[in-house]
Design a protein that fits this description.
Helices cover 36% and strands 0% of the residues. With 87 residues, it is an all-alpha fold. It has one domain. The protein is elongated and about 45 Å long. It is built from 3 helices and no strands. The longest helix is centred in the C-terminal third of the chain and has 11 residues.
Length: 87
């Protein structure tokens, strides 16, 4: 936990890494990290199911919209999904 900080994120940040990347999240105070793979191994029955699970654990609206952007190409459908989450 010593040395130079490479990058710092505030509470509630959503961070996305490219497939094959490596990272080592560290925290002095502790942190909760929610890992969701977007490489075809999605833990949900559908994009809407996955985003509903992300919403349930407190994922920010910005992160939900970003995740949907990659999973649902149609903008109107993405809006409908977000509206159903009642954000």
């Amino acid at each position: 936990m010593h040395g130079d900080v490479v990058r710092s994120y505030s509470a509630g940040s959503a961070v996305f890494y490219n497939k094959g990347s490596t990272h080592r999240p560290l925290s002095i105070d502790g942190a909760r990290v929610l890992y969701i793979p977007f490489d075809g191994i999605i833990f949900g029955k559908s994009p809407e199911d996955l985003v509903a699970k992300m919403h349930k654990v407190g994922t920010s609206e910005e992160a939900l919209e970003y995740a949907l952007h990659w999973m649902v190409p149609d903008e109107a459908e993405r809006r409908k999904i977000m509206e159903r989450l009642v954000i």
